[in-house]
Amino acid sequence: MYEKRMKPDTVFDETYWSSRYNTGRTGWDTGSITPPLRNYFDQMGAADARRILIPGAGRAYEAEYLHELGFSQVHVADLAPEALAALQQRVPGFPAAHLLLQDFFALPAQPPYDLLVEQTFFCALDPTLRSAYAQQCANLLRPGGKLVGLLFETDFGPSSEPPFGGTREEYRAYFEPYFDFVHFDTAYNSLKPRQGKELFMCLRRKA
Ligand SMILES: C[S@@+](CC[C@H](N)C(=O)[O-])C[C@H]1O[C@@H](n2cnc3c(N)ncnc32)[C@H](O)[C@@H]1O
């Protein structure tokens, strides 16, 4: 069966994440946008997503890609200044005001976003926060707005540090109260090391 999660004895706060960047323990970092999100963004129209948020964005290759496609209201939120600085350095034209050095759970709900993008943020959270993650995503989106991205459906083994895995049945229960499921299935175009291990989700916030 799936991993027996050890109870995290660490608080995954700004100090924890900064130290992961500063010590190069960033195994999640793919160095560029991943194919499932690139394909999704490529078919997106300007009207689909005026205000976009990428929480737990890290070095934020998705933000860079969207910025280059011409989306001008892309916001990234992260606890680690090192992560946001990396985006700023790579993409000097990215609006500084859209770099939010803030806790996702404390982000204001107004004005609402049209699209939230998920990429290895959910799996980085203490699993006890999963329900709160789903609720905060719903708070931040307008009715009809979308939560799109990838969730690991795999067993990372017992660990007291991220990433934390899980199953689609578990995840469904967190999102069902707030979202309609447009798509929630194994991604067909994952990066090789992630093939068969991640779900592509497209959820629409209920009215
Ligand atoms: C595993 S990394 C993923 C980064 C990026 N999404 C990627 O795929 O490369 C998780 C990121 O979430 C950030 N993070 C963790 N908890 C957070 C929180 N409560 N609010 C905002 N960012 C957070 C960390 O600083 C880290 O950059």
In terms of topology, how is this protein built?
Elements: H1 14-22, H2 35-42, E1 52-55, H3 61-69, E2 74-77, H4 81-90, E3 99-100, E4 113-119, H5 130-140, E5 141-152, H6 168-175, E6 179-186, E7 198-205
Helix pairs in contact: 2-3
Supply the CATH architecture.
Answer: 3-Layer(aba) Sandwich
Overall pLDDT, averaged? 94
* Beta-strand residue fraction: 15-25%
Shape: globular
CATH topology: Rossmann fold
CATH superfamily: Vaccinia Virus protein VP39
User: What is the CATH level 1 assignment?
Assistant: Alpha Beta
| Tally of DSSP helical segments | 6
Going across the major beta sheet, what is the strand order?
3-2-1-4-5-7-6
Give the strand tally: 7
The ligands bound in this entry are: S-adenosylmethionine
Outline the biggest β-sheet.
7 strands, mixed
The class by helix and strand makeup works out as alpha/beta
Order of helices and strands: HHEHEHEEHEHEE
Straight-line N-to-C gap? 36 Å
**Uncertain regions: pLDDT < 50 for 5+ in a row?**
none
Q: How many structural domains in the coordinates?
A: 1
Share of helix among residues?
25-40%
